[in-house]
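Suppose a colleague, Dr. K., hands you the sequence of a protein chain of 289 amino acids and asks what its three-dimensional shape might be. Before reaching for any lab equipment, you can write down a predicted structure in token form. Begin with the sequence itself:
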Amino acid sequence: MVVELAVSALVLGSILCLGKARALDRSAGVTRILPGASPAPGSAGTASPAPMAALAGFVSAHRRGLAQALGTLGGGLLGLQVAGPVGMAGGVAGGWLVPRALDRRRTGRREELLERQLAEAVETCALAVKSGLSIGQALEFAAAEAHPPMRGLMGELMAERTVGAPLDEALQRFGTSLGTDEGRLFVLILSIHHRSGGNLAAPLQEVASTIQHRTAVRRELRGLTAQGRISGAILGGLPIGFFLVLSATSRRDLAPIYRSPAGIAMLAVGFVLEALAYLWIRRLMKVHV
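The predicted structure, expressed as tokens, is then:
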């Protein structure tokens, strides 16, 4: 009976996580102008998409929510089988946190790639302006030379220009999409020179040099702090891994710990201290540039 109730609670929690993710996605949706974009499915004069395409679109739009729901369900069931109710609580927490950590790591890598590509795009714009092209032509040339994911962002900028959007507004949305100080600086310089004129190549070259220098400094800092970050991950994960191995191989010997209040409190305090130590080490190794 307890197992059935636990599984039902896990399924309900997974559904709630997915529903919350869908609500957040809807509230954070931004309409993007793309060349050749088709009207929304279900609108007048359009046919509904194929079932597989609709499923693929749903998975792509709610990937984080689905990962959290499946991770919560799978982690809770695994923890329930290994260590009972205490393990279920830990599995639910781990299954909910791991997808968030992976998504944050994926976002960080994308931001680093965008920063490097932004330096290349700024340098391309500077060379194009120096050769006599206008700001719009320089941006179009840089968009053609860019690689994903920067090509997609600059393609949206060019699409907005194609449909008649003012350059200042299109640049502001482009800077918001980048979400970095370097991107906002690039947009600010282009906006000022678009309104007042002047020598644009030299400021763009300075921005490109600044972005490249900051990227090099970040790489050097990550290399210098790599040993500390790896040590923190090992010291934080080794006790938890050892406890999981004992739970899988010696469940009968560890059963009294799960059933007594003192044992449950000891496990909870141990996990909390492990998490605080890991976060503290990561905090010490994190340097803002």
